[in-house]
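Exam revision sheet. Question 4 asks you to relate a sequence to its structure. Input first:
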Amino acid sequence: MKTLVTGAAGFLGFHLSRRLLELGHEVTMIDDCSRGRDDGFMRDLAQKPNAKFLKIDLAEERHYKNLEGGYDAVFHLAAINGTKNFYERPKDVLRVDLLATIHLLDWFAAKGNKLFLFASTAETYAGAAVAIPTPEEVMLVVSDPFNPRWSYGGSKIAGELLTINYSRQHRFPFVVLRYNNIYGPRAGYDHVIPAFIMRLLQRQDPFKIYGADCTRTFCYVDDAVQATILAATQEAARGLIMHVGSDLDGEMTMRDLAKKMFTLFEYSPRIEELPPPKGSPLRRRPMLEKLYRNLQFKPAIRLEEGLRRTFEWYQKHGRNQSAV
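Answer key, structure tokens:
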């Protein structure tokens, strides 16, 4: 299979690209490395015989002029994400995420490509009053356009609309995957699990927890990658929006997540509980029946095992990495 992965130097894009290469697929990896890292891991990946890496800013239309087509699957993961960026760089988040998606879809429709897979997020429905667990059919609402947090969720709502309507007009198949709290090695520092790990490694005391009563479910990156590849290769996924996540360990408060990590990694600091960022949903738990039914897939990595793998990676590599 001839594939293209945007955002390949980022967290999920890197792991997806690596797995596709391991399976023997031809993989073109694109990133401008503004957030994703051009590190030793990425450079090693780009040296694989079935790999090609292109440093391209997808938000600039001129960069598509010489980009070849004919891909069996295009995985569009490129975006500026991370909670810190939502609040501090909302204009950049909106500009880059929207322009990259529009230009990529224009190129996709004109170049004889086959399947377009759009990486969306649970942030698309963060402003709605939702049932728990939450189905894909939930109403998508920008609850407060003045809250910069919505720069990301809003861009992904627009991205879903763009994908669906380009597909309708140009008659190509698509899949939209809404990822829910994916974690694992090389995930940067802007998400809760790697942030907690780095504080543990730094022996932070008191240990700060923002939104201690907020609940999430967590999905290890290997499971998310497997679901993504199945979504691109199974006919049953065509034309669907599906949540990607894990319900193996159920919902967990941020307080209980921290305490679990204290036990696993043998550290017992005092806890300082602080308010959650404005607009952060109190609960998040996706309904996964559509994922299981259409892909015959269920996650395999329990939280404890995933945390151990992630901690070991950050313990070895994290202190030498710049924040993403």
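Marking note for examiners. The CA atoms of residues 86 and 152 lie 6 Å apart.
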